[in-house]
Write a structure and sequence with these properties.
365 residues; alpha+beta; five-stranded antiparallel β-sheet; 5 helices; 20 strands
Amino acid sequence: MSNARRLPRQVVGLGLLLALAAPAGAQLPPRLTPGSVADQLDVARQRLAGLPAAVTTAAELETLAQNLRSALASQLAKPLTALDDRARGMVLRAHAAAQWATDYADGAAGCREGETVAMAQALAWSVHRLVQAPADGKPMQATIDRVETADHAALLALRMAGKPVALALVGSELQDPQCPDPGLTATDANGTPLPVQPRITGVSPTRIEFEWPGTAALIPGSYVLHARPQHKAFLVGCSAQPEAAVALQVVPSPKFTVGYALDAVCGREAPRTVALGEGTLPPLEGYGATVSQAIDTSACADAVAYRISATVAYADGASAKAGPFEQSADANATVGLPGGLSLSWDPAVRQLFVHSGAPLCKGVR
């Protein structure tokens, strides 16, 4: 028997071996049906209910769920494979909207108001696009469920960076293996292509990986990623399909400026307050940075306590105040500031320190 005739048996044998080697407890992803996706929309809408920036999106999710239950009332329990192309497209777009809302709700914890608003703008554009999409009957209807970072974290807003950023679009019908790679274009909110475009680094029907250079040159605002796959049809060849598009908000690179006021409580018998210093520490560029400021404490030689107040200014123009905090003069004082910063006063070395920790807002990278 020739090698050519043995090859199919070898392939089959390898497939059986891999199947037997699969973990017994491995779980399949949940089966999508019109009814299950309508339920996903309900859950996502409830999660957005307590987030003021997403009120409009919550209403659109409710409309999507109602449309699914009304238009596909007799097919709510049917899987995608049992639906026609038009109904399948409705379900996939509704599922994508639910995923965007879920990612927003998951990522909003720990965010400042400006970050939450930026994420909500990307969410609103992407969900509205899905709601307004025509009920097309094409066999291949691309949808984008989320934008991901290289570590598979959902992303709605991107901080400006000097280095290229590795991202991915995740969804369905994003590529036909029989056709060339899909088109991928980045535009501003008005649809004007950017001078520097993303470069695709990997592609599959459910994922487009790409590198986006030049984000440091962008101004903060809304940008749109357009994916346009091709589909091969009998006797026709590969032809462009309707595009799928999502919004991504670009926000300034992290920069923090902390103003301070330090007072001492002097004397135990007759306490008096003495101002030791007031000013602004050097700015912190990015996360994991530390700056310090020396303070002259000679005006209070018998301090029993210190009081610290702070004002934080952020790169997006927002600001926040904290304090006053009071601490015994016998110990270091460390207090948390909005945005993941910490302010420390060390009386032994007579210095103020400000440290920017890890980013707290998960939906912004």
